[in-house]
# Entry
Amino acid sequence: MSPVGTLEGMADPQEVLSRRVQSALGAAFGPEFADTDPVIRPSQFADYQANAALALAKRLGRKPREVSAAIMEHLDVSDVCRDVEVSGPGFINLTLREDWIADQARGLLDDDRLGVPLQRPLNIPLDYSAPNVAKEMHVGHLRTTVVGDSLARTLEFLGHNVIRQNHIGDWGTPFGMLIEHLLEVGEASPEADLLTTDPNAFYQAARNRFEASGEGPDDFAARARRRVVRLQSGDEETLRLWRELVGLSKVYFNKVYTKLGVTLTDDDLAGESTYNAMLGDVCEELESKGIAEISDGALCVFLEGFTGREDKPLPLIVRKSDGGYGYATTDLATVRYRVNDLKADRILYVVGAPQAMHFKMVWATARKAGWLPEDVETTHVQIGNVLGSDGKILRTRSGAPLRLMQLLDEAVERAAAVVAENRPDLDAESRAEIARKVGIGAVKYADLSVSHDTEYVFDFDRMLALTGNTGPYLQYAQARIRSIFRKGGVDPTRIDGRITVSEGAERDLALKLLGFGPVVEQVGELLQPHRLSTYLFDLAQTLTTFYEHCPVLTAQSDAERESRLALVAVALRVLVQGLDMLGVEAPEHM
# Structure
């Protein structure tokens, strides 16, 4: 998923050097070598190092240093680099010119996109969050929601058409039980209100009624089973009650999404019920094409290469022996819909890691059926577990899944205590607003700062710390820049000075800022938000070193002051934009 093109005028030193070395390769060894990867990497000996010679030496039958020397004869980087030399077995070390770095950093000041190129727009259905109707969202939904939302924000900034797909669980056998319970307690009863305040309590009450029920034809369990049949057959009164359940759950979902600060809306809901009318066609087509077959009464797909215990073929069950449909059927219908109706170029699923085999089988079946063309990419963004201090999946003391809203409320309460201690000078309303941004930001950043497919330990004390790789640390970094401008009586949006990089710390900060665009592109390609988190943390640390060596408001000359104000103005915009891609708000004060 590469961009349309990154021109040399854009602030990406690695890309500029790569193009220059590729040109030299073509001139030195012929046009067929012009597309060779020059392997430009950051180096401890220079800004960057070209490693192309080592890979080419064997192919050309020459020594690496000879290859490097030949490249050097045709390498024109005098306008970009002040030092170029061959070192070691054949590395080409490239040290950038300070004036080139300064000019590129100054370019960021005028660039609304901060060096991030617009890519060729793709249609990208993005499946994430996916809670269940009439059940409370728990901590397990945190990562799918936060990671998915960050990817949506980043891909949109890169220019893609992201189609959010909140595949909620809103169909199936539990709804017979839930609808019957709703009828018993009354649609206007306090018990029904639990669907918007404590969905788990309503669900558990319905479950208890079902499990305690007798087996007579008029008992609760029998009525609930009949209600499922009515639902699936389209009985209008049952559908009305089902729509009420879904509607009440939407109110609850939106409370969580608003609290969490994610971009999902009701328009993004695409639950299991969306595909119900398509499931029969899915099965019929698979059977008619000879892809699915009856096995033990169920309609199954047996794919080559998928085996279970004792190497027996592993079935993908698309219709159960009782005639019902499962997740596989619905997921096949979603693939077909997303390709045919949404015109997908790339389909992303932000779902728990244990579903990896399921998705592989669904996609293989869809490709075999002709529903998923080879030029449509499907990716499972695997989500790891959130752990408690005991190393086990985070739960309450009673062993129940930890309610997401409860966790978010506690994060804000803890942040409020920290803000009250650090900023007693602010009024209560301002402290509450900062606490909300810091508390929620801390939870989200802790999740996004680690690779999405790994586990991490949930620790409020670490998350809310103002030091280390935390959300509050980055929020403070941008708030500190804002305070510099307030103290200097300067509007950061009106900075228009020339940038110079005479000091090492200035040079390091400018180079770090030039790395923003490449990192955002990398996140969009690899679907790894933690790479952006790492970059922002490194930028904040670079800023700290910059302040130690380069006073801003008390610089020795007006020109130096204007240059440093321009540098930190770019840094402010990069931090705020980067945090926004992570879904973390940037408070004016800390």
User: Anything to note?
Assistant: The domain at 13-96 is CATH 3.30.1360.70 (Gyrase A; domain 2). The first strand starts at residue 40 and ends at 42. The CA atoms of residues 149 and 357 lie 24 Å apart. Residues 1-9 have pLDDT under 50 and may be disordered.
